[in-house]
Design brief:
It contains ten helices and nine strands. Strands 1-3-2-4-7-8-9 form a seven-stranded mixed β-sheet, with helices on both faces. Strands 5-6 form a two-stranded antiparallel sheet. The longest helix is centred in the last third of the chain and has 14 residues. The N terminus is likely disordered. Keywords: DNA-binding, Phosphoprotein.
Length: about 220
């Protein structure tokens, strides 16, 4: 069953929380509503209920658990993004694995975090992905790296500058921040990102980071 929360006025991001742990969902909703720029407008506890609630409320952002009683969160994400592709989705998991992160990248999820992470980090990520950033927790990237190196041979050839941009992408920074860090224009940085995506046969920056990690291009965790 889904329950709708009261909304606030202004430009606060409208957020739906989908998690089968009701206490966790309620605590997270309360934490979001304490922030002036964030507003939890509804909660659901399964794939079907969550998708229906998102179709009803059209939230700006969804915080979604990976494991749900009637399926996994990626199934919900696929349905939500098929109908509302501009929706930002941050996925939480208590049991990270390489396959889930790979699927998340291909689906178009823009944040993937451990469920037991700090609330402050989650709030920062939620604000970041609103502006187009993507984030994968470093601990999850490290796990990807350790698993990926065992199975993948030599990858595509990236220039030194492309590798620098790729590492900054993996840190979860946006293009403007990366451009300033490298002392180049935003336009030039976007060009490097486009080249990286083409070489790694990726459609999104998150998908590129996943592919690069599997190929061992990001070095040691």
């Amino acid at each position: 069953m889904a329950t709708e929360q009261s909304t606030t006025t202004g430009q606060a991001a409208r957020i739906v929380v989908i998690d089968d742990h009701r206490t966790f969902a309620e605590l997270l909703a309360a934490a979001l509503n304490r922030e002036g720029d964030l507003d939890c407008v509804g909660m659901a506890h399964g794939v079907q209920a969550g998708v229906e609630l998102c179709f009803e409320l059209s939230p700006d952002l969804v915080i979604l658990d990976y494991r749900l009683p009637d399926g996994d969160g990626l199934q919900a994400a696929e349905q939500i993004l098929a109908r509302a592709p501009d929706t930002r989705i941050v996925m939480l998991t208590g049991d990270p694995n390489v396959h889930a992160i790979q699927r998340a990248a291909s689906v178009g999820i823009c944040g993937f975090l451990p469920k037991d992470g700090a609330l402050d980090i989650l709030l920062d990520v939620v604000r970041g992905v609103r502006t187009g950033e993507f984030v994968v927790a470093p601990a999850l990237l490290s796990r990807l790296d350790l698993l990926g190196r065992k199975t993948v041979g030599p990858g595509p050839s990236l220039t030194g500058r492309e590798l620098e941009v790729l590492r900054l992408m993996a840190a979860g920074q946006d293009v403007s921040t990366n451009a300033r860090a490298l002392g180049i224009s935003t336009h030039t940085c976007r060009g490097y990102v486009k080249s990286i995506l083409a070489k790694l046969d990726a459609h999104t920056q998150l998908e590129a980071v996943v592919a690069a990690t599997k190929l061992g291009l990001l070095g040691s965790p």
